[in-house]
Amino acid sequence: MNRFFFATKLGFTKSHVWVKIDTSSLVGKLGITFHGQKLLGDIQALNLPSIGDSFENNQQLGQLESQNNIFKLYSPMGMKVKGINQEIFEDYTIINQNSDSVWILEFLAKD
Question: Which of 1, 45, 53, 71 could disulfide-link to 40, CB 3.0 to 4.6 Å?
Fold first, then answer.
């Protein structure tokens, strides 16, 4: 019988954030879920951390803004920011249209 091991895990938080993490390297990406984006509405502004910033579990790391709402992003675990998806700053509509697949930031999980 064949056994499979999946090195990438996908999870969701209660605050409508999805997290995809490679369990061997502890490098992950996070984004907003479809449901979270629908609650927020069309995104018009982003306030995100800088590369190199570190966060503890459940610490606010940024926010997304629509005309009538603010969606606060919280870290789902201890992490250090490795990258920011620059495409979302050029065109917010990619999050509005594909929130479940468009990542916002890349991180290294902390032990």
Answer: 71
pLDDT tens string 57-76? 999 999 999 988 999 999 99
Which DSSP string corresponds to 8-71?
EEEEE-TTSEEEEEETTT-EEEEEE-HHHHHHH-S--EEE---TT-EE-TT-EEEEEE-SS-EE
Maximum alpha-carbon separation in the chain: 54
| pLDDT for res 15 | 87
Domain membership of residue 63 (yes or no) is yes
- Which range marks the domain in which residue 24 is found? 8-109
Between CA 91 and CA 96, with CA 42 as vertex, the angle to 5 degrees is 55
- What CATH code is carried by the domain that includes residue 92? 2.40.50.100
Interacting residues of 87 by C-beta distance below 8 A, sequence separation 6+ = 94, 102
Residue with tokens 């999870």: 11
The answer to the question of residue 3 being in a domain is: no
Q: What's the gap between Cα 9 and its chain centre?
A: 14
